[in-house]
Amino acid sequence: MSVAKVSEIIASSTTSFDDAVAKGIEKASKTLKGITGAWIADQKVTVTDGKIDEYRVVMRVTFVLHE
Fold first, then answer.
1. Rounded distance, CA 34 to CA 38, Å?
2. Cross-strand bridge partners of residue 43
């Protein structure tokens, strides 16, 4: 039997939502071992002078706990 845990993280990118997700998973993988999936709980952008300057995602990352 395996047990999983969910951790919420926020990641950002100046390029795109997809890039923010990729960066978030990459960074989380450095400290969370056994990541099996993630889902996007929220997305937002920050705007300066009428232009998007940052894409942000709130992710819930699932990882399996080792015995």
1. 12
2. 57
